[in-house]
Specification:
Elements: E1 3-4, E2 9-11, E3 34-36, E4 38-47, E5 52-53, E6 57-62, E7 65-71, E8 83-85, E9 90-93, E10 95-97, H1 112-124, E11 127-132, H2 140-150, E12 159-162, E13 166-168, H3 187-193, E14 195-197, H4 204-213, E15 218-222, H5 235-247, E16 251-255, H6 259-268, E17 272-273, H7 283-292, E18 295-296, H8 300-310, H9 318-321, H10 326-332, H11 342-361, H12 381-392, H13 397-411, E19 429-432, E20 446-451, E21 454-456
Parallel strand pairs: 4-8, 4-9, 10-11, 11-12, 13-14, 15-16, 16-17, 17-18
Antiparallel strand pairs: 1-21, 2-3, 4-5, 4-6, 6-7, 9-19, 19-20, 20-21
């Protein structure tokens, strides 16, 4: 267990809904109505919406929620109260990764122990919420089982959302491509791996009814032909999937890899693209995405590992391997193949970065996703890598932090609970030694992580890495 709880204490501040602005009036001794479990003392709140950091404040936490925020030194609390001294430091909302499979970033079959260790690693790197988009042990039943294990907190886990088993065409991606299964593989075997297939319109309604009954609020569809080598969902099936999902108040997220796939998805009305296209997306399509509110989740960290291998860069950086499991690192020793040549890697990298830059300029809503559990895409670390790559694309640190907190919460339709630091919000906090608005790499200088009001032990900070 890497979570520890705190003793209660008394705060003297009325509940506030705050970002970087706090009540400048000191609390009176008559207002002692809010008992908390933790006081975070003297920290500056980083507000990505305004791009500013507040003057030092105290943050009162009770149970899983933020109770109050007031100027530093103005809250009254009992002498034996639990206090986290964060004076001179900065705090952002816990990071949200909306494309994170449950695995450790190695290759080969994942065990239950691998997945449990991976979930703990997200928290140690300050990723307090993830969206699991099917595949790799992420079917409807798997997701429900992990949610039961993680809520209430019985083992260290970020908060889990997900789409359950992904929906694809028979013989399509990832069945024949990644998993290398035959076209006639049975449905039970596919479901165990985290996928279901749809071939006819009449199959859609019963499938989505089952997913809705399982408590899922989103589906992920795969629009992928592997450069024409495998079949894919037809545009008619995509349209019917979107219509049927929206009738059930379920969101639709699309795996794509080309601008054509992206266009087919957006024209059908999907709610989010779960990858970047590897070729240039037209400005007109980004304008349509902005108008429709279609999210863009570029997963640059996924591609970066393949690009590095294509260019002969195989040595991982210390901050990545500080949390990587020995099994994952050992499994990658024999993994040296990249689908890109060195020249293709350089060209595609520029396209991916340019797509993101133009999407942001067009006002497309953004969320952060790393596609954890692909080779070298390690849980927790790769979210920070994604932030840096997004800045490399031309976004400001404030824009990127917004995508990783406010954007992720809106993507999950949880904007009133997650992604912000305000009275009444879930107490997911990432306390940093340095201001990430000044340099996005400062997101790695982790001093403390608080998840649902409890402090995470064993955090992994770049400040302690060689």
């Amino acid at each position: 267990m890497i979570i520890r709880s705190f003793l209660p204490y008394v705060v003297a501040s009325a509940l506030l809904a705050v970002g970087c602005q706090v009540n400048e009036t000191p609390p009176s001794t008559d207002d002692l109505s809010h008992r908390g479990t933790l006081l975070v003392r003297g920290v500056s709140i980083v507000d990505p919406a305004t791009g500013r950091a507040s003057d030092p404040v105290d943050i009162s936490i009770g149970g899983e929620k933020i109770l109050a925020i007031a100027p530093a030194g103005t809250m009254l609390f009992e002498p034996d109260a639990a206090v986290l001294d964060a004076r001179g430091r900065y705090v952002i909302a816990g990071l949200i990764d909306v494309h994170a499979h449950i695995g450790d970033g190695g290759i080969g079959v994942q065990t239950d122990a691998d997945r449990a260790r991976a979930l703990a690693q997200f928290l140690r790197y300050g990723v307090t919420t993830i969206f699991v988009p099917g595949g790799g042990g992420g079917n409807d039943d798997h997701l429900a089982a992990w949610k039961n294990r993680c809520r209430p907190v019985t083992e260290p886990c970020p908060q889990l959302f997900g789409s359950g088993a992904l929906i694809t065409a028979p013989g399509s991606h990832p069945i024949s491509t990644i998993w290398e299964m035959p076209d006639d593989v049975d449905a039970a075997t596919l479901y165990a791996r985290g996928a279901v297939t749809v071939e006819h319109v009449e199959e859609i309604g019963p499938l989505l009814d089952q997913k809705q009954a399982a408590g899922l609020g989103a589906i992920k569809i795969v629009i992928e032909d592997w450069m024409g080598e495998v079949p894919r969902l037809s545009n008619e099936l995509i349209r019917h999937l979107v219509e049927a999902a929206h009738e059930r108040d379920m969101r639709v997220l699309a795996h794509i890899s080309t601008a054509q796939h992206a266009g087919d998805a957006v024209r059908a009305g999907v709610d989010g693209l779960m990858h970047s296209a590897e070729d240039s997306i037209a400005d007109e399509l980004f304008a349509a995405m902005a108008a429709q509110g279609t999210y863009y989740v570029p997963t640059l960290a996924l591609y970066d590992g393949f690009f590095d291998r294509a260019e002969g860069q195989t040595a991982p950086e210390p901050y990545a391997v500080a949390g990587a499991s020995p099994r994952a690192l050992a499994s990658l020793e024999s993994f040296g193949v990249s689908p890109f040549t060195a020249e293709q890697a350089r060209e595609t990298r520029l396209v991916l970065l340019d797509n993101l830059r133009r999407a942001a300029a067009a006002g497309v809503p953004l969320a952060v996703g790393s596609d954890v559990n692909n080779p070298s895409v390690f849980p927790g670390y790769s979210t920070h890598e994604e932030l840096e790559l997004m800045v490399e694309a031309g976004l400001t640190p404030a824009q990127v932090l917004s995508a990783a907190t406010l954007g992720g919460a809106a993507f999950l339709v949880q904007e009133h609970e997650l992604g912000r630091i305000a009275a009444g919000s879930v107490a997911d906090l990432l306390i940093l030694d340095h201001n990430p608005l000044e340099a996005i790499e400062h997101s790695r200088t982790i001093y403390a992580v608080i998840h649902r009001g409890q402090q995470v032990e064993g955090v992994i900070s770049a400040s302690t890495q060689p």
